[in-house]
Amino acid sequence: MTHSHSLLTFGTWYAGIHGYLSTCVCVFGIVTSIFNITVLSRKNMRTPVNNILSWLAVSDMITMVSYVPFAIHFYILNNPMQLSPTKNNKGWTWFMLFHLNLVNTTHTISIWLCVLLSIIRYAHLRSPARGEYVRLRRLKLSRIFIMSIYISSAVMMTPNFITKKIVEKPTMDNQTVYLIIDDNLINSDSQAAIILNYWLYAITGKLLPCVLIFIFGGLLIYKIHEKTRRRKQMMQISCANRTRLSEHSRTTKMLLTVIVLFLVTELPQGILIVMSITTPNIFDLIYVPLGDLMDIIALVNNAINFVLYCTMSQKFRNTFFDVYCACLCMHTQNESDLPLRQKIDSYSNNNQV
């Protein structure tokens, strides 16, 4: 009881700052996701792995774009711990329902993209692409897999969409607020459909992808050690080959960091969902007080990929500087040329007959 009371106290305290913190993280993440998409979609960056990372950035950006108005309305402009007709009116409750379904879908998309990322990187280490035909074929396959993940994730979340309903609830002062509840709680004495829905989400959206990430992440670690050992045994290889192998190793480590962060973020949520299904009161006493904390951890995970790419990939840094610094330099050059052009135009106009 003491631990549950401490969690409730923490949840109440953190809710007071969650709106401001999550909004800042989302704004940063939206901007950096745009950087990721524009850089990774450049012609010289088009590979199956970068294609997956681009669509991962799209999924993360959708999550954060939806989260900004949600956080501002429900956490900053209104008391997050109280129901009110202003906060919980019909329009904003519909938006909350849309937001929750959208975020659950994009989270599912992102974690399955990480599974695909680990599988494709492992397949590349086992048999590197040789020749333009193989590279283009793998790029095409990656696009098919990505679209399949987007579509199948939406389909997997369909039971969650259709089991939610908005209902009216009168307040003590005869006003009306709107709440989201499971439709089966109204239409049936049995909660079998709700339990099945939670199990489906816990397994397909959390636990199964985490298991696959753990397996292929372990295989990636093994491959990194294997290549490192082989490189030490071949110290006589050329400097160019050593540089290329080192860059491949850094890329693999960067991707491994990305998928491990997803594993650390998503696995505890999956475990808590299973505990909430199987153990009474766990949802109210543990999952709800920690819900906002799990949200901010997931948002930070979405937002920091740009930092990881910049710090761990020289090719990403070079392309980023080529794209954005070139645009900045052109803009600065145009501004510096403007006064000279104005003087020339003024001279011409003042000397016309």
TrEMBL record:
One of its GO terms (molecular function) is G protein-coupled peptide receptor activity. It is found in: Membrane. Residues 32-309 form the G-protein coupled receptors family 1 profile domain. Keywords: Membrane, Transmembrane, Transmembrane helix. Its main location: membrane. GO terms for cellular component: plasma membrane. PANTHER family: AT19640P, MYOSUPPRESSIN RECEPTOR 1, ISOFORM B-RELATED. This is G-protein coupled receptors family 1 profile domain-containing protein. It comes from Octopus bimaculoides. The lineage of its organism: Eukaryota, Metazoa, Spiralia, Lophotrochozoa, Mollusca.
